[in-house]
Specification:
Bound molecules: flavin-adenine dinucleotide
Radius of gyration: 23 Å
Strand content: 15-25%
Number of domains: 3
Shape: globular
CATH architecture of the largest domain: 2-Layer Sandwich
CATH topology of the largest domain: D-Amino Acid Oxidase, Chain A, domain 2
Oligomer: single chain
Helix content: 25-40%
Structural class: alpha/beta
Distance between the termini: 36 Å
CATH superfamily of the largest domain: D-Amino Acid Oxidase, subunit A, domain 2
CATH class of the largest domain: Alpha Beta
């Protein structure tokens, strides 16, 4: 688990310093600790605060990339999806996707079929199937019938993105790495030859600084990558693209499997995906013009865009702003020459190397491991001699595949979910909880007991870290879980060293942040 430590406790010399605690940094961190490197990760906000807690939460090949002419990206992603399904059950789980075919609307049946055949070939398994109109309507009864000519079902996978980052960080720390949140890299130091010699880091709250020595720095700061390492290709720069989601209760969009619809305005796919007891609707893809240092938020235009698609394709459901539980927005790190529309931009990643500084940006959650390998390979010359471990070795530590003898009344499904999120530590989580806290928080799959456990073991500095990223009740329950805050406080008081005044302030800050960046903007009833 991530130990509580400050920068004053840090040693000065490191084999490798990783900047950025999203999925990219966490992936490199985990792989570097498997090579027995002496490695530090710093994140200037909270772990997974950036794009890695704001994705569509799919571990997927990306059918769209096939159509857009990036078959290698799809192939790599499908391979990674298959690995993660095997290695991280309970965290990465298969999800069925339904894709309707409408008469006269592209993509048609044959082009979809060809794409899905290729998809299956990449996974070495025939998984997709066509259903006629009657069968397809039975699978998704609320979908628009007019013009429906049947549809396909295929499979991808989904994840809790922030917990994926936390699982990697926790396991890397257990293997000897060190990770600090709320710690920014302020300057990369170089010697007379221009080689990386160290990094100046700063605790973003106490403002305490420390100079570290290292010969290798990985810049895994996603959309912020060019702040530390300007693009070596003067024609290609990071283009921040915002993607936003709406979250609805399952009772409002009662679907058992994900549904892909084609937006009538621009033919982009829009997904409705069951996730953690709720349904996510997304995403958008627009240039992000605001201050990139601020927490991104959905705009009214994006809300209208997403609602237009859902209301059109689910005409019998009452889906509106009023029954939306929460919203969230993230910024894609996309390398661009600036002449394509947002959705035409490649989602592949780049690795830049300059005298000990290796930058890795772009890409997807799904391909984090391949990105980590390519990054460490690029950094090899600046690292002490280490043996690279096998690419086929599992990245996650194995977890039990059956429930423990003392099961605390939890179902096999719940154990699977806990092991997926907390690894072996799930046992301690259950052992140290009361029976009352081993129950789910209403409308979610999250157990109350996850809160005190994360508060104690996972370097929580603020209430928002706990409710938005360690668990996701900030996205899944009305008003960010406002009605549960007293119980959260009671459960976590002994682990978080906050007096009454600090608790009051934390609650206020959290609810203000929630209203500003996770709710429907300007919604009237926000009290
Ligand atoms: C709307 C949307 C939907 C998506 N859906 C999917 C999906 O379903 N599946 C998929 O595979 N991919 C998806 N992606 C892509 C995926 O989410 C991103 O590629 C991935 O999260 C990027 O991770 P990262 O670690 O590179 O960046 P981030 O997660 O943004 O992490 C970078 C971190 O660096 C930190 N940082 C910046 N500067 C400093 C500094 N000086 N010092 C210390 N720390 C610093 C930031 O605070 C940040 O936390 C989606 C992206 C978006 C926007």
């Amino acid at each position: 688990m991530v130990k509580k430590m400050g920068i004053e406790d840090l040693r000065e010399a490191w084999d490798l310093v990783i900047i950025g605690g999203g999925i990219t940094g966490a992936g490199v961190f985990r792989e570097a600790t498997r090579m027995n490197l002496n490695v530090l990760l710093v994140e200037r906000m909270d772990f997974a605060w950036g794009t890695s807690s704001r994705s569509t939460k799919l571990v997927h090949g990306g059918l769209r990339y096939l159509k857009d002419g990036h078959p290698l990206l799809t192939k790599t992603s499908v391979e990674e999806r298959e690995r993660m399904l095997k290695e991280a059950p309970g965290l990465v789980e298969q999800v069925g996707f339904l894709m309707p075919v409408y008469r006269g609307i592209s993509p048609g049946k044959w082009s979809l079929d060809i794409g899905l055949i290729l998809y299956d070939l990449m996974a070495h398994e025939k998984q997709h199937r066509f259903y006629d109109t009657r069968e397809f309507s039975a699978l998704t009864p609320h979908l628009k019938r007019k013009g429906l000519a049947g549809g396909f079902r295929f499979f991808d996978a989904q994840v809790d993105d922030a917990r994926l980052v936390l699982r990697l960080i926790n396991e890397a720390v257990a293997a000897g790495g060190c990770a600090l949140n709320y710690t920014a890299a302020r300057e990369i130091l170089r010697n007379d030859d221009g080689q990386v010699a160290g990094v100046v880091i700063e605790d973003t709250e106490t403002l305490e600084k420390k100079t570290l020595s290292t010969g290798a720095v990985i810049n895994a700061t996603g959309a912020w990558g060019e702040e530390l390492h300007p693009s070596p290709d003067r024609k290609r720069h990071l283009r921040p693209l915002r993607g936003s989601h709406l979250v609805f209760p399952r009772s409002v969009i009662p679907i058992e499997q994900a549904v892909t619809i084609v937006h009538p305005a621009d033919n982009r796919p829009v997904f409705a995906i069951p996730w953690e007891g709720a349904v996510l609707v997304g995403t958008t893809d627009v240039d992000y013009k605001e201050d990139i240092q601020k927490e991104p938020s959905i705009t009214e235009e994006e809300i209208s865009y997403l609602l237009e698609a859902i209301q059109l394709f689910f005409p019998s459901l009452d889906v509106s702003e009023d029954n939306c539980v929460s919203t969230f927005a993230g910024i894609r790190p996309v390398l661009s020459e600036g002449n394509l529309s947002p959705s035409e931009e490649s989602r592949d990643y780049v690795v830049w190397k300059y005298k000990g500084l290796v930058t890795v940006t772009g890409g997807k959650l799904t391909t984090f491991r391949k990105m980590a390998w390519d990054t460490l390979k690029a950094a090899k010359a600046f690292l002490p001699p280490v043996r690279f471990i096998g690419r086929r070795d599992p990245v996650f530590s194995p977890v039990p595949d059956r429930i423990p003898e003392e099961d605390f009344g939890l179902s096999a499904q719940t154990w699977r979910r806990l092991y997926g999120r907390y690894g072996e530590a799930a046992n301690e989580l259950a052992e140290t909880a009361t029976m009352a806290d081993l129950k789910p928080i209403p409308d979610t799959l999250t157990l109350w007991a996850e809160l005190p456990f994360a508060a104690k073991h996972e370097q929580v500095r603020h209430l928002s870290d706990l409710l938005l990223r360690r668990v996701r009740i900030g996205l899944l329950t009305p008003m960010g879980g406002k009605e549960y805050i007293k119980r959260v406080q009671k459960l976590c008081e002994s682990s978080l060293p906050w007096d009454r005044k600090r608790w009051k302030q934390e609650i206020k800050d959290y609810l203000d942040l929630w209203r500003q960046s996770y709710s429907i903007p300007n919604r009237k009833k926000q009290e």
